Amino acid sequence: MIICVLEDRKTSETSLKLLLLSLTKHCRDIPVRLSYPAADAAFRKWLLHCPQVALSGAAAGRSGGWNAKPRALLDLLGEGYGEVVWLDSDIIVTQDFRKHFGALDSETLVLTEEALFGAYRDPDAMRARLWGLAVGRSFPFVANTAVVRVTAHHIPLLLAWEGLLDDASYQTAQEQPWDARPTHLFGDQDVISALLTSMQFMDVPVKFLMRGADIIQYFGLSGYTCSERLRHIFRGPPAFIHSQVFKPWTKFKHPRRSENFRDLVDTLYLDLSPYTLAARRYRPLLLAQDHWMEPHSRLARLMRILGLWYSPLVGAPIAAVADFVRLTNLRFAKKMYFSLVSLRDPEHAREL
């Protein structure tokens, strides 16, 4: 096994260091191939803390960023590695994660469950249909690519994934603001979700690392639900903590005032992130500005203290309110859907 990590933003060097430090702590014997074109002399010197990391200054792929994933994986498979694991640079590893992959055969692909937010679901393989692909199966949620495990068996899938990421329609969509992109062209994970639900790749076995049990997808107020927190308390922490979309090391780089009440709540919840609490243990080796780890309001400080600086408890009151609102809205949406179905198709409604 080899771990593949890519980062092309100097602004994300803090999170990159945290990932590498956590890998050194928990998976010291697994080689890591790091592509980081922005590495300077100071970073190269710091990298001595992580002896299993081999640094490549070259960028992987033509598109950079998340779109380089298939090419980076293909390159390592091409070097003869039998198993390659991609990790996003905004992840902290909390334990040796090989138990998730040890019993898998070479045909099984590993991805993660998407975070709970508006684009969580892929109803009736919608992304495949929007790409014009014949549908072979559907998943209950979108595949997230924060963690990807591949073998040589997946080379045809990786080539197809790279091909669609190079497609002109996808490249054009990437030039648009996030909220203006079509669903199937939003990002790399929407593309691989389309491929995996297509007729062509419907036979590829997929193991999903699940929210709460295997990974914390910390994005928005539903990023760490009450049920996930309880599981953490009784069964231990998940192997991965993913600070998805909103980054505390950039959000709190400079003092800021909240723009409105929703921004105030979102900022407070980010200030209580399990990612930040996990990052604090690596503070002495980070050798970088770390004031973003400190609470940025009196309320955040109080909630950290009341939660005993223990991730499942810190922020739990906000999670409880968010869960209530989300579940209430979900029940309302299901009730409305059933009502509409009853009006249009009474027979189908009786089946439901």
In angstroms, what is the radius of gyration?
Answer: 21 Å
User: Strand percentage, roughly?
Assistant: 5-15%
Mean pLDDT: 89
Helical element count? 15
Question: Could you tell me how far the N terminus lies from the C terminus, measured between alpha carbons in angstroms?
Answer: 46 Å
CATH homology group of the largest domain: Spore Coat Polysaccharide Biosynthesis Protein SpsA, Chain A
Alpha-beta content class: alpha/beta
What is the molecular shape? globular
CATH fold-level assignment of the largest domain: Spore Coat Polysaccharide Biosynthesis Protein SpsA, Chain A
CATH class of the largest domain: Alpha Beta
Task: Please give the order of strands in the largest beta sheet.
Answer: 3-2-1-4-7-6-8
Quick overview:
It is built from 15 helices and 10 strands. By secondary structure, it is α/β, with parallel strands linked by helices.
Polypeptide structure, described:
This protein is an alpha/beta fold and 352 residues long. It has 2 domains: 2-209, Alpha-Beta Complex (Spore Coat Polysaccharide Biosynthesis Protein SpsA, Chain A), CATH 3.90.550.10; 215-325, no CATH class. 40% of the residues lie in helices and 12% in strands. It contains 15 helices and 10 strands. It has helices spanning 13-26, 41-46, 69-78, 126-130, 155-165, 168-174, 188-196, 226-235, 248-251, 261-271, 274-279, 283-286, 298-306, 316-344, 346-351, and strands spanning 2-6, 32-35, 53-56, 84-87, 91-93, 109-113, 143-150, 206-209, 215-217, 240-242. It has a 7-stranded mixed beta sheet, with helices on one face. Helix 1 (13-26) links the parallel strand 1 (2-6) and strand 2 (32-35). The chain is globular, with a radius of gyration of 21 Å.
